[in-house]
Specification:
There is one protein chain. With 257 residues, the chain is α/β, with parallel strands linked by helices. The protein folds into 2 domains: 166 residues, 3-Layer(aba) Sandwich (Molybdenum Cofactor Biosythetic Enzyme, Chain A), CATH 3.40.980; 79 residues, ACT domain (Alpha-Beta Plaits, 2-Layer Sandwich), CATH 3.30.70. Helices cover 37% and strands 29% of the residues. The protein contains 10 helices and 12 strands. The strands form 3 sheets. Strands 2-1-3-8-7-6 form a 6-stranded mixed β-sheet, sandwiched between helices. Helix 4 crosses helix 5 and helix 9 runs antiparallel to helix 10. The longest helix is centred in the last third of the chain and has 15 residues. The chain starts with a helix and ends with a strand. The relative contact order is 0.13.
Length: 257
Amino acid sequence: MQTTKAEQKNTTACIIIIGNEILSGRTQDKNIGWLATQLNEIGVKLAEVRIIPDVHETIIATVDECRKKFSYIFTTGGIGPTHDDITSECIARVFGVAVSRDAQAEAILTNHYGAENLNPARLKMAEIPVGSRLILNPVSAAPGFIIENVYVMAGVPSIMQAMFAGLKGELKGSAKTLSKTISLYVTEGLLAEGLTAVQNKFKDVEIGSYPFIRHTRLGTSLVCRSVDAARLEECYDALKEFLLTLTSEITETDLAA
């Protein structure tokens, strides 16, 4: 089915990070920023991120809610061989399907480990919701899977990245978000009123304000983001014109969103 321009404008994604180890602080997430960058490259806007525990009811409710709100859902974590790896069975319950031994997944694991080393724990990684397509894993073999608009991947960054590289080409986005940044040694409190006036004039352009300290000096970086290059330039020019009334010491940068 061909994606219309109207649909493309609203191509959004949600990342669901699954794992008690992330919530406890034992493991630091390294997937969100990397995925956000990759998605923006193909015009898919990361609209939301959820970090949830290894709890059946929470996983089921979160995935079910998000799959109805966003174009794509990407989950990471919980598809390994241990007892707390429950993502696959939870995703199956979301879609009302059974989990079964996938012949292709089993063949991949057999080839990787050898039949003599394919114990029940490793075979668990071949248990896939019925109707899913596999996401190949060139790093450690155990596959992820896709069911409708939900993409289920490993939590280990190197494995997740390899999985995503293999499926990235099938994702359909809209226009890439463009951005321009201007930084100045003026605090937010002094520029807030004028910034609000610019934002009100360009409601279709997102303007983010980010305070910083550099060399003991306080300042603010302002980032304009839009999928429309012409509107981005108009907004940026208006913002720059206002900021130059406050100081001539500014830094301009073109950055990815």
